Amino acid sequence: MQAWLCENPTGVDALTWKELPTPQPKAGEVLIEIRAASLNFPDLLIVQNKYQIKPPLPFVPGSEYAGVVQAVGEGVKHLKVGQHVACLSGTGGFGTHTIAPAALCMPLPAGFPPVDAAAFIMIYATSWHALMDRAQLKAGETVLVLGAAGGVGTAAIQIAKAAGARVIAAASTDEKCALCTSIGADASINYSRQNLRDEIKVLTDGKGPDVVYDPVGGDFTEPAFRSIAWRGRYLVVGFASGPIPSLPLNLTLLKGASIVGVFWGDFARREPQANAAMMAELAGWYAQGKIKPVIDRTMPMAELKAAYAHMGSRGVMGKLVMVNEPAP
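The line above is the sequence of NADPH:quinone oxidoreductase family protein; the predicted structure tokens follow.
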């Protein structure tokens, strides 16, 4: 097998493409031939030693991938050789093969292509857990999505619309705003040239959004929270802009509003049955055409460093997916 190896987490430039021995699965594990792997923000942080999870060195980055089971370890009952799966295991995806815990593998129904599957679990699980579980979103409510053209943002738009909500998408360019409306957003705000608070006021007749979905953090958090509706729920999803913002807590009192943390990874670990039911429902929504990952582009696995550079340019809309050509 071949893989991008991180032996010293000083950044993307330290990654090297290496020939490695193909491992064999132990009890509870499977060997997966990787067909596609998506690039996520944590994949950048982890090779810079800035992520909260620090795997032992050396490691292969790539948190989310899809492929075909090549071998199963002892005790694995729900997967078999030749089965197509998607997996989000945190590492291992940027190569030709990987060992994955069988419990983290999602069996794929027929007709679920590997590129979509590799871009599915993280964004839809995060957005469903945020909107449907943590925010208890109801039909007819208004959702403001910040960073709406990114992976989790596009997933949030689709899930909110499928739940019957009205969606306002906020993004940094007209092109990104146009993408958001093309996948279902009812209105958009270009916050690089429009005043966020003013536009929210106009688009909600002064009421404000019932739910704010924020994977960005930074400078827009406080103005978005100041705009929230009475009894609104502010979803803290992540900090893609870098800075972790602070909020004056008197705002929660004045708005009767909630600040709600969203940590899908720990939800999946602590509440595995609820997570499995959620993933089954999401797979059904995909089959019904209600949700579909927005793919910015696919790139050969060998071009991973160029893909990281593209992601760092903030130009990605939806998900960036690395692909391996299947063996002849």
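Note on the example: The chain has a mean pLDDT of 94. Residues 2-120+293-323 form a domain with the Quinone Oxidoreductase; Chain A, domain 1 fold (CATH 3.90.180.10).
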